[in-house]
Specification:
Shape: globular
Mean pLDDT: 80
Number of strands: 9
Structural class: mainly alpha
Number of helices: 40
Strand content: 5-15%
Radius of gyration: 31 Å
C-alpha cells in the first residue's frame, strides 16, 4: 500500500520547503546588501555562496548561510561578541570576516573574504611539494593562527578545508578561513543535543582536540588549535590522518569521543612504514623514495607532531608560534624542543654544523681547561667523610670560578679590549668533555659551566652555539629548581637575548617575560636582576616594532638603576642608550638625543683611554640620531670611531663589526662617496653571510637593503635582486606587519622608479605606507611621513597632481611636527613638493617651499652634496618662471 501511495504521490517534497518568510537563497537572490552569484560549497555548517557586496564598496565575497535548526539569536549574539576581536585581525594569511546577520528566512549568515584556493593538503600533493617545502608552507599557517590568538580569537575548527592555498605572483600563499565562525555556531554539549548537532558544535572529529570531545562543556583554549594544527601537519607529512575517519564514525558517537580523548595514534614514521602499496604514491607526491621519506620523518618530525597532538594539553606546544619555531629549528638542523634532547643527539647536531671547528679542535688552552675539568671531576668523586665532602665542594667552586675567568679572557668587556680567539677551540673541547658525562654527578657545576661558556660564545658572535649550551643549562637548572630560582631566571634572560641575536625575537620575548615574572617574585624590591631583565625585554620589544611599549620598560629600568647605583655606572649608561634609541624609534628625535649624549659621556668616563664595546655602542646610537637630525656629516666621525674601536677589539668576523661597516657605508652613500660606500657595504654583507651560515637572518637582510641602495645608483637592474632577496628574508622572519618588511617593500619600489617603472612601484609603495600606518596608528612617525612623500612623488610622476598634492601636504606637516627645526628628510620633501607645484605651473606657491628646502639643505648638508645642488637648481628654475 505504501509503494502504491508513493507512485501516486506528487513531487511536492522534491525541493526543500521554503523558510518562513520566503527565501532568497538562490542565484540572483539578495540578502541584505549582498547579491548571491553562485553556490561554491556545502558542508556541515551550511551553504557557501559567492556573492557581490553592493555597498559601501562593490566587491565579491564569500557568504556562508548556516543551516536550519540552530538558535539564530544565540548564534548572532556570539558573533557580535567576536566581531571586535575579528576586526583587529590583519594578517596576510588570514581571510577577513567582514559581516554577519540574519537572512529573510531567519538563518544566520557570515560574510568573509573570497579566497579562490584549494585545501592545503590537496595543493601540496598537486604541486608534489617536498617535505621541506611543506614545512615552510605550514609555518606560515602557524604564524597566522598565532596572530589570531594574540588578538583573543580561537578558531576551534582548523582543518585542510579551512586552510586554502592560493597563488600570488606564482608563490603559494595559505589563507586560514572561518575564524570566529566556529565559536559563533558552537553550543554546549548535552545529552539532548550531542547526537543532532555534534558536528558544528565540537569541530570536525578527526581534527578536534581531546578537550573538545569532553561532555563537560569545559572551555577550550588556544592549545586546541595547536592540536588541530598537529593533525594537519600529520596529514601533510604522511597523506593520512592520525585516526582513520571511517573507523572513527563506525565506532558510534560515544566510542568515537573516547578514542579521541584517550587512544594514542601511531607516530608519522610508523604510519608510513605500514602503508604498503599506498606508500609509493605518497612518497612520489613528496619528491622522495619510500625509504627516504621514512628517514626524513623519523626522529625530529615524529617528535614535533606527537608533541603537537599530545592528549594532555599541558604537554603540547603552548602556542602555535612554539610549533612553528620548532619546525624552523628542524629545518636549520638545530636540536628541536619536542624530543628528548640527549647529549649524543645534541653532539651530532653540533658536529654536523661545525665539522671544521670540531675536527680542528685542541690548543694549549684547551688542554688547560680540560685539565681543570678533570680536577673538578676528581673533587666531585670525593670520599664519603662529611668534612672531606664539604672541603671538596668548596674547592670545586674555586676551580670552577678559575675556569670561568680563563674563558672570560675571550670577552673584550673583561679582557680590557683584547680578545684571544683561540679560546673558542678550548670551549668546544670543554663542551665535548661535559657531553661525555664527566659531571653527571654534579649537575649544578655542569649547568654553571654550560651557562658561562654559552655567554662567552654569545659575546664572541657565536649565537647559534650559545643557544645550544644555554638551552641545556636552562633545562638543568629547571630540574634542580622546579619551583623557580634566580639562576633559572638569569638563564632565561641569557637564552632570550641569544634568540634575539639569532633573529627569533618572538621567542626571546616569551622567555624574557617568564624571567621577569620570576625575578620580581624572588626580588620584590629594586634589584640588579630585575633592572637587567627590564632592559633586555625593552630591547626585544623594540625590535618587534613596539617602541611605545619599550620606552616605559627602559624608563622603569633607568629609575631602578639610578636608585641602586649612585654616580656613573655601566648599568645606568646601558639603559640610557636603550631609552634614547626607543625614543628615536618612536620618531621623537629631539627627545632621543639627550639620553644618548649622557650614555656616551658616562661610558667614556667609566672607560677612559681604552677600547670598550659599551663606548662603541653609545657612539653608534648617537650617530643614528645625529644622522636623522643633522645629516650624514654629523654622523660620520661617530660611526667611524665606533668601527675602529670594534675592529680593535674583535679580530675576524663579528656582528658588531658588520653592523658598524654597514652604518658607515650608508653615511658615505649619503655623502655621495659611492665607491667607498659600496666597498664597505659589500664587506658587511659578506661578513654577515659568513656569520649566519646562509640562514635567514635580519642582519643579512639589512645588509642586502643597504648595499642595494648604493648599487641602484649605478645599476638599478643589479640592485633589484638584492632588494627582492632582502624582502623574502624579512617576510619569512616577520610574517606580520614589521618595519623591516615595510622598508624592503619601499626599497624594491624605489629601484623600480629608478628604472622608469613607476606604475609597477605604486602598489609596493602603497603597501609599505599602509603597513607603517598600521604599525604607528594615529601618530606622527618618520616612516609614515616618508611613505606619504614617496607615494606623492609617484602620483606626481604618474600625472595625478591632486593625489600628489594631498600626500606631500600630509607628509610635510607630519615632518614639521616631528622636528620643527628641520631635517634632511623634510628638506627633500619640500624640494619635491615645490617641483610638483612647478610642474603644475604654479611657481608662486612653489617658491616658499623651495626657499625653505634650499636653506635647510645648505644648513644640514656639506657643500657639494647632491641634495643641496638639487634644491638650488629647482629654486633657480622657479625664480625664472615667476611673473616679471
Amino acid at each position: 500500500a505504501l509503494l502504491a501511495s508513493l507512485a501516486a504521490a506528487s513531487d511536492f517534497l522534491a525541493d526543500p520547503a521554503p523558510a518562513a518568510g520566503g527565501s532568497n537563497e538562490k542565484p540572483g537572490g539578495v540578502i541584505d546588501r549582498y547579491r548571491l552569484l553562485q553556490r561554491i560549497g556545502e558542508g556541515g555548517f551550511g551553504t557557501v555562496w559567492m556573492a557581490e557586496q553592493q555597498e559601501p564598496v562593490r566587491r565579491n565575497v564569500a557568504l556562508k548561510v548556516i543551516k536550519l535548526g540552530m538558535d539564530t539569536r544565540q548564534v548572532v549574539a556570539r558573533f557580535e561578541a567576536e566581531r571586535q576581536a575579528l576586526a583587529l585581525m590583519e594578517h596576510p594569511n588570514i581571510a577577513k570576516v567582514f559581516d554577519g546577520g540574519v537572512t529573510p528566512g531567519g538563518r544566520p549568515y557570515f560574510v568573509m573574504e573570497l579566497i579562490k584556493g584549494v585545501p592545503i593538503t590537496e595543493y601540496c600533493d598537486q604541486a608534489e611539494l617536498s617535505t621541506q617545502r611543506r614545512l615552510e608552507l605550514f609555518q606560515q599557517v602557524c604564524y597566522a593562527v598565532q596572530h589570531a590568538h594574540q588578538k583573543g580569537v580561537i578558531h576551534r575548527d582548523l582543518k585542510p578545508s579551512n586552510i586554502l592555498v592560493t597563488l600570488h605572483d606564482g608563490a603559494p600563499v595559505p589563507k586560514v578561513i572561518d575564524f570566529g565562525i566556529a565559536k559563533a555556531t558552537s553550543a554546549e554539549l548535552t545529552q539532548k543535543t550531542m547526537f543532532t548537532d555534534f558536528r558544528q558544535m565540537i569541530g570536525t572529529p578527526e581534527y578536534m582536540a581531546p578537550e573538545q570531545a569532553e561532555l563537560s562543556g569545559f572551555d577550550v583554549d588556544t592549545r586546541a588549535d595547536v592540536y588541530s594544527l598537529g593533525v594537519v601537519l600529520y596529514e601533510m607529512l604522511t597523506g593520512t590522518k592520525p585516526f582513520d575517519v571511517k573507523e572513527l564514525l563506525e565506532k558510534g558517537y560515544l566510542e568515537m569521543l573516547r578514542v579521541i580523548r584517550e587512544d594514542q595514534p601511531p607516530k608519522p614514521s610508523t604510519r608510513i612504514s605500514t602503508m604498503g602499496q599506498q606508500l609509493a604514491a605518497v612518497a612520489r607526491n613528496r619528491h622522495a623514495t619510500p625509504r627516504a621519506l621514512h628517514q626524513v620523518i623519523h626522529g625530529d618530525l615524529d617528535w614535533i607532531v606527537m608533541k603537537a597532538i599530545e592528549k594532555d594539553r599541558f604537554r603540547r606546544y603552548p602556542t602555535a608560534n612554539d610549533l612553528a619555531v620548532d619546525i624552523g629549528r628542524h629545518l636549520r638542523d638545530l636540536p628541536v624542543q619536542a624530543g628528548p634532547p640527549g647529549a649524543g643527539y645534541r653532539l651530532r647536531k653540533f658536529v654536523r654544523r661545525n665539522r671544521v671547528v670540531v675536527i680542528a679542535g685542541g690548543s694549549v688552552l684547551a688542554a688547560l681547561v680540560l685539565g681543570l675539568a678533570g680536577t673538578i671531576d676528581g673533587i666531585v668523586r670525593a670520599r664519603d667523610q662529611a668534612t672531606q665532602a664539604s672541603e671538596q665542594a668548596d674547592r670545586a667552586n674555586v676551580v670552577l670560578d678559575f675556569v670561568a675567568e680563563i674563558l672570560k679572557s675571550s670577552d673584550p668587556r673583561v679582557a680590557g679590549g683584547r680578545q684571544e680567539m683561540t679560546v673558542l677551540d678550548a670551549m668546544q673541547k670543554a663542551v665535548e668533555d661535559i657531553d661525555s658525562g664527566r659531571f653527571a654527578g654534579h649537575p649544578a657545576t655542569e649547568a654553571s659551566l654550560l651557562s658561562t661558556i654559552g655567554l662567552i660564545l654569545l659575546g664572541n658572535g657565536k649565537a647559534d652555539d650559545a643557544e645550544l649550551l644555554l638551552s641545556r643549562a636552562l633545562k638543568a637548572r629547571e630540574r634542580l629548581h622546579p619551583g623557580g630560582h634566580p639562576d633559572v631566571a638569569n638563564t632565561l634572560v641569557a637564552l632570550g637575548m641569544t634568540l634575539h641575536q639569532r633573529g627569533h625575537t618572538l621567542d626571546a620575548e616569551s622567555l624574557l617575560r617568564r624571567a621577569l615574572a620570576m625575578n620580581k617574585r624572588f626580588h620584590p624590591g629594586d634589584h640588579d636582576d630585575v633592572a637587567i631583565n627590564l632592559e633586555h625585554l625593552g630591547i626585544v620589544v623594540q625590535a618587534l616594532d613596539r617602541a611605545d611599549e619599550a620606552e616605559p620598560l627602559f624608563q622603569s629600568a633607568l629609575e631602578m638603576n639610578e636608585r641602586l647605583h649612585e654616580g656613573d655606572h655601566e648599568a645606568v649608561a646601558s639603559i640610557l642608550l636603550g631609552l634614547g634609541l626607543a625614543r628615536a624609534a618612536r620618531g621623537h628625535l629631539a627627545d632621543a638625543e639627550d639620553p644618548l649624549v649622557r650614555a656616551l659621556a658616562m661610558n667614556q668616563r667609566l672607560h677612559p683611554d681604552e677600547d670598550n664595546p659599551d663606548v662603541a655602542d653609545a657612539l653608534g646610537g648617537l650617530a643614528e640620531v645625529r644622522l636623522a637630525l643633522r645629516g650624514p656629516a654629523a654622523a660620520e666621525p661617530l660611526y667611524r670611531k665606533a668601527l675602529e674601536m670594534n675592529q680593535n677589539m674583535y679580530q675576524g668576523d663579528h656582528p658588531r663589526v658588520a653592523s658598524n661597516l654597514g652604518n658607515l657605508g650608508c653615511v658615505l652613500d649619503n655623502l655621495g662617496r659611492l665607491a667607498d660606500a659600496e666597498r664597505l657595504l659589500t664587506q658587511a654583507l659578506e661578513m654577515n653571510e659568513r656569520l649566519h651560515g646562509g640562514e635567514d637572518h635580519p642582519d643579512v637582510a639589512r645588509s642586502l637593503n643597504n648595499l642595494a641602495m648604493v648599487v641602484q645608483k649605478r645599476s638599478p637592474a643589479d640592485a633589484e635582486p638584492l632588494y627582492e632577496r632582502a624582502l623574502s628574508i624579512h617576510q619569512s622572519l616577520y610574517p606580520y606587519d614589521h618595519s623591516a618588511v615595510a622598508g624592503s617593500l619601499l626599497g624594491l619600489a624605489m629601484v623600480k622608479i629608478y628604472q622608469g617603472r613607476v606604475a609597477d612601484a605604486e602598489p609596493q609603495l602603497a603597501e609599505s605606507l599602509a603597513m607603517n600606518q598600521r604599525l604607528h596608528p594615529g601618530m606622527d612617525h618618520p616612516d609614515v611621513a616618508l611613505g606619504l612623500c614617496n607615494l606623492a612623488r609617484v602620483h606626481q610622476l604618474l600625472g595625478r597632481p591632486a593625489d600628489a598634492r594631498a600626500g606631500y601636504d600630509e607628509g610635510i606637516a607630519m615632518l614639521r611636527r616631528l622636528a620643527p627645526e628641520g631635517t634632511t628628510l623634510l628638506a627633500q620633501a619640500l624640494c619635491n613638493s615645490g617641483s610638483a607645484h612647478l610642474e603644475d605651473g604654479d611657481a608662486e606657491t612653489a617658491l616658499p617651499e623651495l626657499e625653505q628646502a634650499e636653506a635647510m639643505a645648505t644648513r644640514l648638508l656639506p657643500e657639494g652634496d647632491p641634495m643641496v645642488a638639487q634644491c638650488r637648481a629647482t629654486l633657480a628654475t622657479c625664480r625664472e618662471r615667476l611673473p616679471k
